[in-house]
Fold this sequence. Notes:
Elements: H1 9-118, H2 123-128
Amino acid sequence: MPQFDQFSFFNQVSFFLFFFFNFYFFITYYFLPKIAFNIKFRKKFIIFKINKQKNLNLEIKNKKLLYTDLLKNFSNYYELTINENINNYNNYKNECLLKNSLIKLIYIEKIRNLFSKKFIISKKYLLNI
């Protein structure tokens, strides 16, 4: 850097101050507001994204709870339905067995009567029917 001399001292200092203050005002009025705006925007954007993520996590948690409750209700309903169907089947089976056994007994009695009237058949054969 050149040294200051007596003849050009005023010119050198005045040009230095002129360019320095122009540079300073240019930076403070054009670059700093843009930088500050970007910083504020980023802070707001980050806060917005954090809040959005919290809301999404809350919704996910609520949906998980809803689905687990739905699954529990469905499994309870399914279990009750299965048990009810099994009970109905057992009742129907018992009724059918009773009905069929009564019918079978009636038929056996009729067949015995028929055979006893028309044919002579041993008791051993009739008991095995």
